[in-house]
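Researcher: Structure prediction, please.
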Amino acid sequence: MRNKAMNSFSSYENLKALREKSESNRLKDNRNHEVLYFHKTDDPYSHLTIQFIDKLKEEYSIDLVPVLVGGENPEALHEPDLYEKHCLEDVKRISPYYGIEFNGVSYPETPLVNKANSILASTEPNNFIEIAKKVSLHLWANDEEELSKLQRQFNAPMNKVKEVLSKGNKIRNDCNYYFGSAFYYEKELYWGVDRLNYLEERLTELGAKKTSSNESIAPLSIKAPEKLNSDKLLNLTYYPSLNSPYTFISAKRVKQLKKDYPINLITRPVLPMLMRMMAIPAYKAKYFLSDAAREGRKYDHEIKEIFSPIGKPARKAYSLFPEIDKHSKGFEYIDALLKASFQDGVNIGEDSFLENLVTEIGLSWNEIKTHLNTTNWKKVLDDNVKDMYQGNCWGVPSFKITNADGSDPYYIWGQDRMWLLKEEIFKRIENT
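Model: Predicted structure follows.
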């Protein structure tokens, strides 16, 4: 049942059919292109995303409907304290590359958030974006005086605020989403500036583009070259798991990064979140898989047939990792396991599969198989998780850059930030 659901969520054929049906219904109902935008006042990503909405409206014939939302759905939020720290740090890191100023050093206090929500809960949709940008600027600057000035013009009582936030959360939940800073258009979700390109592509295909510009709404201004040569090596630690579609789509680029950049690749696998007792609700799993699938198509590493390795198959495969890694084949082994699970639809827990794989990567099955179903791997993976958590990372894939001696660690969570890895490596190499 898990495999069937995962394949359904990631299927490109299902996505195309859904889009065709949605567009047919839109035309039948004579509706404009309506895009919902979920805005959360104290969400750092919302501060970044809202800066590009005017441009989105200028470039496309859409009805942009802002939806003010409150707290995230708790069941979809793992490690909430780490999550908040991560969001703040991530937006501080990436904002300059989008040409956006973000000076938030900590999350705003509750009274200021209440002021911000009071202002926006009384704002009409046609000027919501304009006011929300001002509110966000003052909120993250902890400027109570400026927020109070705005509140004298726009001021909803707390019962009204609660009503608006509750309604917004219901709309967001009914769209099968759980955070702020996301767009929803005709049965499909697009999270923040990282996914604006997909919304643009879809609207362009439907003829909603108003201009002849080929530039994306939120282009990155990056300095790192495609390839970098240097005698100096940095360490890049890669934290994959065997049940993660995002890990699968990152593996090809990790391999390419090793070819193109002066890095020593260290592979430190961790248990999947489900095997770390982190429940993932069905709507979140659906978004993960559908989103990872479109990212895989973007990077020419498509998810095809899935066979989830959760449980015994993963444990068996992990049991061989420490010995295989001693032979400097750790990444190659994990990469092949991911391909089997997310492209070939193979049960990686079969002894015959593992024997063939070990042989294909140039190792002796007779030597390696003595480690099958042993338990040494558990401490190895547990240590890997602990190290990953040191960098405020709990999900996969995560990454760590250090100098050759292991000093000055720089952690990143997510395949979305692999471009930032290159920026950090380039910066360190250029500054030596």
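Model: The chain has a mean pLDDT of 96.
Researcher: Thanks, that helps.
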